[in-house]
What we know:
2 domains, mainly beta, 155 residues
Amino acid sequence: MNGRKTLVEExxxxxxxxxxxxxIEVKGRVEGDLTAPALSVSTSGAVHGKVxxxxxxxQGELAGEFDADLVQLSGTVKDNTVIxxxxxxVKLAPANGKMQVVFGECELEVGSEQPAKEVAKEVAKExxxxxxxxxxxxxxxxxxxxxxxxxxxxx
Length: 155
């Protein structure tokens, strides 16, 4: 990549579609579609929209739909954000000695892109009893606001 990068500097706001053949670094604000080999969002940066990259590292604010192979998060993810990743790393850095992870209304997909209905059909074909609920079953309801984690269906 010869050290080239596309930079959205602090104080800059970009709205629209941004496509680059070199990594994108966001210190300002981007709203819209973004496609690049890599994305880095600084602590002052924000990306809201639909993103397709191979690698993403964010210390800033994310909202929208993100599709990447490798994701490293240590910033803020807004409600109703979808993150699809083959690998996800979340780093927590408490500012005041306390850490808090909040999963609001969000969706996180890690691993295979195989649709849930196809996975359910394959599980049904195995004819072995399973204690797992069907892949298309409604998620458990929460009363205390904490996230629920369900293992992926067997394939």
